Amino acid sequence: SFSLTLIDALDTLLILGNVSEFQRVVNVLQEGVDFDIDVNASVFETNIRVVGGLLSAHLLSKKAGVEVEAGWPCSGPLLRMAEEAARKLLPAFQTPTGMPYGTVNLLHGVNPGETPVTCTAGIGTFIVEFATLSHLTGDPVFEDVARKALKALWKNRSDIGLVGNHIDVVTAKWVAQDAGIGAGVDSYFEYLVKGAILLQDEELMSMFLEYNKAIKNYTKFDDWYLWVQMYKGTVSMPVFQSLEAYWPGLQSLIGDVDNAMRTFLNYYTVWKQFGGLPEFYNIPQGYTVDKREGYPLRPELIESAMYLYRATRDPTLLELGRDAVESIEKISKVDCGFATIKDLRDHRLDNRMESFFLAETVKYLYLLFDLDNFIHNDGSAFDVVITPYGECILNAGGYVFNTEAHPIDPAALHCCRKRKEEQWEVEDLMREFYSLKKTKKFTLKRLSDHGEGESAKTPEDASSEKGGEKRNSKKSSHSLLSCPSQSFNSKLAVLGQVFLDNT
C-alpha cells in the first residue's frame, strides 16, 4: 500500500514543481515493485492508480530530469512495471462477454468463487491506460480487451439508451438497474470521451453522444441529474452524489459549456452550504442523506472548476477554488496530513486520508490557479525526442487525465510503432517505383489467387511474416494506403485516365 500511495501521488510532485522529490521517488520505484503476491486486487483501482500512475510518471520522467534509457519513451523501467501490473489484470477479462471481473488475485488470477457482478465503471474504465500501454509497447492485447469491454456495455444498453449500475459479466444480465451519471457508472462515460480525444476515435465519441441524449431525456431535471430505472426512465433516487460533480468538466470537454456552468453552479451551492460536498444530497429536501454525510476530500467539483475555467475564465470558478482551499485548511488539516471529514454537519473527522486527495484534489486545485503550468501548454513549446523509430514530438500539451488525474501525453502514442503501417506502404511503393524505372517492365499479378481485398504478397512479405515484423495493420486486413477490391473495369488506367469496358 505504501508503493501504491507513492505511485498515485508521483506526478503531483512534478506538477507542483517538486522535481527533486519526484526524482527520489522514481529512484525508489526503479528498485522494483513486486506484483507477484498472493493478494486480491480491484481490477479497476489497480488500473487507474498503479497502471495509470506508472504510465504518467514514465512519460514525465525526462521532463523531470530523470536519466532515461535508450529507446525512451518506448521503453523504461516504469513502463515495464506498468505492463507487468496490467498483465496481472488480463485474466479478469477472460469472460464470455469480454467484460472483466471486478477482482483478480495478482498471483493466481481470478478466484474460482469470484462474483461475476461488476459495476459499469469497473468494466468501462480501461481504454485510456490500456490503449496507451498498447501503443507504447506494441502489444495490442491491452487496447483490444478494453475496447471489447466498452462495446459489450454499449451492446447491452436498454431500449431507451441507458445503462444500469451493476451487470453480470458472464450472462450480461443487469443486476442493479439504476441509471445515472454517478457512482458505479461515472468513469465509463468519462472514458468514452477521453478515449475518443486520446485516440481521435469517432466511434467512442458517437457512443457518448448517444448516451448524452438519453441522459438529458430521462435523468436531467432543472440542471440536476437524478437516478432513474434504466428500462422505464422513472425516477428511482432523487439524490445528488458528490462523485457526479465530474460531469460539468466532462461537458466542457465536448463543448457544452453553458449546460456545464448551470449544473456546476447547482453543485457549488451545496458546497457553500456545508463547506464541502456530502457523499449524498437529497435534492427535494435540500439536505444530506442519512449515513452519507461525509466528505473524503473528493476532487470532482474542483476538477470541473479547472476544466471550466480553462474554457470560460469565469472568476466564479476561482471563488470555488478559494473556498475549497480555505475549507480544507480550516476543517480537515491535522498534524500529519488532511483527514477525511466524517460528517459535514458538525465537521467531525475520521482517522484516514485517501490517496486521491494527493493524486487528484491537490493537483486540480493547483492547476486551477497555476495558469502557466506546463500541463496547460498550448502547443507553442514542445520537446523533440529521437527514438529508435524516428523523431518524436512530446510535451506539446493536450494532456488527457485518467480518472485518477494522471496526465497522459497523447503525442507519445505516436512515438513507438516499430514500423508505422504508412511508412511500410510508402517504402514499398517507392521500392516498386524505382524497380519499375530500372527494368521498365510491368507485371500484372493475379488477384484470384488471394482473398477478396487482400493484396498479393511479395517474397519479402512472406519472409517478413515468417521471421520478422508483420506489415499489415492489426485492425484491418487492408493496409492504410490501399483500397478494397474494386470491379475490374475500374482498374485499367493510363496516366490517371480511367478506361472502362465500354470505352
Please give a structural write-up.
With about 500 residues, the protein is an alpha+beta fold. It has 16 helices and 23 strands. It has a three-stranded antiparallel sheet with strand order 3-4-5. Strands 6-9-10 form a three-stranded antiparallel sheet, with no helix packed on it. Strands 11-12-13 form a three-stranded antiparallel sheet, with no helix packed on it. α1 (about 1-15) packs across α3 (about 45-60) and α10 (about 245-255) packs antiparallel against α11 (about 255-275).
Give the overall shape.
globular
Taking strands numbered 1, 2, ... along the chain, how are they ordered across the largest sheet?
A: 3-4-5
How much helical structure, as a percent, in the residues?
40-55%
Number of discrete helical segments: 16
Calculate the terminal CA-CA distance, rounded to whole Å. 75 Å
Q: Structural class, from secondary structure content?
A: alpha+beta
Nearest-integer average pLDDT? 87
Q: The biggest beta sheet, please? A: 3 strands, antiparallel
User: Which stretches are poorly predicted, pLDDT < 50 over at least 5 residues?
Assistant: 439-503
Strands, count: 23
